[in-house]
Amino acid sequence: MTNTLSSVEASREHAVSERGFVAVSALLFIASATATIAWCNAMPGMTELPMAWMPMCGRTWWSFAASFIGMWTGMMMAMMLPSLLPMLRRYRIALYLTGKPNVDALTALAGAGYFAVWALVGAMVFALGAALAQLEMTWPVLAHVVPFASGAVVLAAGALQFSAWKARQLARCRAVAAPGRAAWRFGLRLGLRCAASCASLTAILLVTGVMDLRAMAAVSAAITLERLAPAGQRMARCVGAVAIGAGLFLMLRAALP
């Protein structure tokens, strides 16, 4: 009788924990999406070299970099949460079934590890954008090459969607391992896998407009479909076909006088 009562109480606690997880996740998504929309409306497209990648008067490079990385991480939260939450929920269930204590804290730590990877990606994106901006200021002739190069990047990213490498990375990203390692390490590992899987789509986002809401929505939808749809690899190839067509169109438009 005591064991039955304990089991019922544990089930109730788990149900309350699950509702809290859903509520907190919804609040995080709303907050990150609202902040991202506000940033996009307040800033020019971050691919408009070179001025968009230069600090404004009175700001240092360090403060500008920190601001960009913060905005990037918030943007990634809005874009990745729809596909991440089902994975985190499966992770929570695995923790619960194996009798791990502090499921909520471990879930939060795993999520923090995941977005720490995307913050690091943001730092690399900022360094690349700033370097390209410096090159364009040094050689203004590069401005004429950027539109064609952007189309070529979109084309190459679309082709990568059909590769065996992409298939392996997507399969690794879709798989949630048993919670045998520390939550932080689990989040880092999942973040690295998903960042690799999203490499081509991230490249498309960078060249079409980092702070463009339409580009963000399209890339976010593609990432979510790849990760959650039953035929994820088929979805990745469909996205690749669209990207190849878009890349060819952008290159043709840039080549025409």
UniProtKB/TrEMBL annotation:
Keyword Membrane: yes
Pfam families linked to this entry: PpoB2
Cross-referenced InterPro entries: PpoB2-like
Transmembrane feature ranges: 21-41, 61-85, 106-133, 145-165, 186-207, 236-256
Keywords attached to this entry: Membrane, Transmembrane, Transmembrane helix
Protein name, UniProt field: DUF2182 domain-containing protein
